[in-house]
Specification:
The structure holds 2 protein chains of 2 kinds. By secondary structure, chain A is mostly helical. Chain A has helices at residues 10-23, 29-37, 39-56, 66-77, 87-92, 100-117, 149-167, 173-199, 204-227, and one strand at residues 5-6. Chain A has 9 helices and 1 strand. The model of chain A is unreliable at 122-146 (pLDDT under 50). The radius of gyration of chain B is 22 Å and the shape is elongated.
């Protein structure tokens, strides 16, 4: 079947010449006017507008999982990934913990906790059953403590820890297990910081982590003492 | 770029991820990949028209990104930086393939044939509802120079001045190539529609096996 052909008018040629500029956003009234009059040129304009619109709405495609597998494998072989700190260390990066207000409130809490929890005469009474190993919540050795602010905080923590041990029999077993778990992680973080400081004593970041670890430990111990007997 | 194809992750969380990735945190790399993989892959797919090539190029783009991430200082948006990097990876690949992508200002007669514009009865009818797959196929079949400009402008939302910079051509050339690309796409889509209409008009063929049994 042969399609009937039609001749282009002069206006069609002008339309062709101005169409690109019109589609680029230029004001071309003759294009709009001719598109209304000429079915061929009107169809062309609508088609091009539809193509442009559809192109801008094309959905995104999902790559196959092998892309990431290959990227990951390559990066690993190049040593781009570095081992990260544990959960507690990442928690300790949480800046608000280091702010003066929570620190001050914590220090007050610790002092109150210490005053309330100290047995009469100030002597430590251990209620720790023989079956329960003391290692997981053992205090960090005093000899390894740094000087200054950290030492003061470490001393407070040690005092709170003594009170915790003295009163742990009055804490419910479930609660005690939760606190001990937290303390084990915090002790690990503190040891990690102290080890680092042996090699890099001026590492400001490590000092910051250590301070935060002590603060967090004091918070945990104070909380445990607050809940004893409940 | 004037368009955003995907909702970008919140700036704060993304900057945290970038900082972590700069420290070599694998989880941060994974999260950044997840956030941007579809956009990068789609760009590669549309610029090449080939899924295998697109995956290789997306992979290469992310590898380059993660190797260079320590140099990212936030002067531009991370997504813009990544997107430009991916475009460069694709263009480099096309250049290596010898597809005359270096500059649109260079003479490329194969792409400059005038688009046929004769008027028949069919030309008065619209393409109608163009389906997405048909458009994707038509884009993939465009000559590489047209395809690149069309994808960058109409799909990815780049401005002509950005395309001119990327492609080392003039703004006018970018506009002209885009117009030709759209015209070629229209022509291709109309041919597809005519082909489909022709196939629909053909009588259904009898199954070969049954016809033999009957004879």
């Amino acid at each position: 079947m042969n399609e009937r052909r039609y001749e282009k008018s002069a206006a069609c040629f002008q339309f062709d010449g101005e169409l690109e500029a019109y589609l680029e956003g230029e004001a071309r009234p003759s294009v709009v006017a001719h598109a209304r009059e000429c079915a061929f040129c009107g169809a062309l304009l609508k088609d091009l507008q539809q193509i442009t619109q559809m192109a801008g709405e094309m959905p995104l495609e999902e790559p196959s999982p092998t892309v990431w597998a290959n990227v990951r494998s390559q990066l690993e072989s190049e040593g781009v990934f570095r081992p990260q700190q544990g959960v507690w260390s990442r928690f300790l990066l949480w800046r608000p913990v280091l702010h003066p207000v929570p620190l001050g409130a914590l220090a007050l809490l610790m002092l109150l906790g210490g005053a309330i929890s100290l047995p009469p005469g100030g002597t430590r009474t251990s209620y720790l059953p023989d079956a329960v190993p003391s290692a997981p919540v053992a205090a960090v050795e005093s000899s390894t403590l740094p000087v200054g602010e950290e030492e003061n905080l470490a001393s407070l923590v040690e005092q709170l820890e003594n009170n915790f041990h003295a009163n742990e029999a009055t804490i419910s077993p479930d609660l005690k297990a939760t606190y001990e778990k937290s303390l084990v992680s915090l002790n690990a973080s503190i040891r990690e910081c102290l080890d680092t400081l042996k090699h890099e004593p001026r590492s400001a970041l490590t000092h910051e982590y250590l301070l935060t670890a002590y603060t967090r430990k004091a918070e945990v111990l104070s909380s445990a003492l607050e809940f004893r007997g409940r | 770029m004037s368009q955003q194809k995907t909702p970008a992750p919140k700036a704060a969380s993304e900057s945290q991820l970038i900082a972590r990735a700069q420290r070599g945190d694998e989880e941060a790399f994974t999260a950044l990949f997840e956030a941007h993989k579809r956009r990068v892959y789609s760009l590669c797919l549309r610029m090449t028209g080939n899924t295998a090539e697109a995956e290789d190029l997306a992979q290469e783009a992310f590898l380059q990104l993660f190797r260079k991430i320590s140099t990212f200082r936030g002067e531009s948006a991370f997504s813009t930086w990544l997107h430009r990097l991916a475009v460069n990876v694709v263009l480099m690949h096309l250049r290596k393939k010898g597809l005359q992508q270096i500059s649109l200002d260079e003479a490329d007669n194969s792409q400059d044939e005038p688009v046929k514009r004769d008027y028949g009865d069919d030309d008065r009818r619209l393409i109608g509802s163009v389906d997405r797959i048909g458009l994707q196929r038509a884009i993939a079949d465009l000559p590489p120079g047209y395809r690149t400009v069309f994808v960058l402008h109409d799909v990815e939302g780049y401005e002509h001045n950005e395309i001119a910079e990327i492609m080392s051509c003039s703004v006018g050339n970018s506009k002209s190539q885009l117009h030709k690309a759209r015209m070629k796409l229209r022509e291709r889509l109309r041919l597809d529609r005519k082909g489909e209409a022709g196939r629909e008009a053909l009588p259904a063929a009898e199954p070969v096996g049954e016809a033999e049994e009957e004879s």
